[in-house]
Amino acid sequence: MINDIRPVQASNLIVKFADDINLGIKVTDDSDASYMETNNIINWAEINRMKLNYKKTWEMVIRGKITRPLPAPLPMIVRKSWLKILGVTFQENPSMWDMHLVELMSKACSRMYIIRTCKYYGFSRKELDLLFHSLILSIIVFGIEVWGCASYSKYLSQVDKLLKRAYKYGYLMYQVSIVDILNNKDRDLWEKITTDPNHALQVLLPPSRQLELRNRGHEYELPRVRTERFKRVFVNRCLFNFI
Fold it and tell me: Which class for 36: exposed (0-12), middle (13-18), buried (19 or more C-beta within 10 A)?
């Protein structure tokens, strides 16, 4: 399918993945292009003889701790307080990952029963380690570059406790931590982005430095950080960790 759809305003973002479209719009007190951008998608679908599935079309307003009234909801589109996009559950407050962690931990704990049963029937520690990596660690690392910005004390520590318990019970051959896993996954993706000029995430990188003051791990400018939450997001996390 040809990706020929473009936002009406360049400041807005349209991401098309197969037959799914994600539309990101920055709403301020002075401007709200929601209606204009949604009508643009509707017209594009009609021109290309495609039918939009409104039962699978939702709106979510991403906001922090603000008292400003929310923009009016879009017609025919249900507004939700959370959305699951490519396996990661986002909530309207970008600092909250409760729903994603609850689902992740529920899956992990239910699969621990499988490994416990296998241990009862005499599986070796090496075999249990392979099972743990296949059944549990795989769902933990999925999308961790995105939700890894979550607070450690509130969210990531839950995963760490599960990993420590797995090692204690003999399900892992080596003790691992969520911080080490996150750093390794960050570095793998960071190297792919910075070494491939055609990578889709190249647009997220800041400009290169103009002055060469000293050798660094990368050539990009460091952003001004005002909050710890801003520093923890993937790109900024890599900019400061791999400097």
Answer: middle
User: Is the CB of residue 77 less than 8 Å from the CB of residue 58?
Assistant: yes
Residues 141 and 182: their CA atoms lie apart, in Å, by 8
As a whole number of angstroms, the distance between CA 137 and CA 155 comes to: 16
Per-residue pLDDT reduced to its tens digit, 25-51: 888 767 788 888 899 999 998 988 888
The C-alpha atoms of residue 17 and residue 162 are separated, in whole angstroms, by 33
Considering the chain, what percentage of its residues have pLDDT values greater than 70? 97
CA distance 150 to 175: 22
Closest Cα partner for 215 from 242, 193, 188? 242
Structure tokens given for 73 = 């909801």
Question: Cβ neighbours of residue 169 under 8 Å, at least 6 residues apart?
Answer: 116, 119
**The token pair that represents 224 in the structure block:** 């001004």
pLDDT value, residue 165: 95
What was the pLDDT predicted at 30?
A: 72
Dist CA 235 CA 241 (whole Å): 10
pLDDT tens track for 115-135: 999 999 999 999 999 999 999
Residue 167 is inside which H or E element, if any? helix 157-168
pLDDT for 234 equals 94
Under 8 Å between Cβ of 61 and 92: yes
CA atoms within 13 A on the CB side of 110: 7
| Nearest in space to 27 (alpha carbons), one of 56, 75, 65, 60 | 60
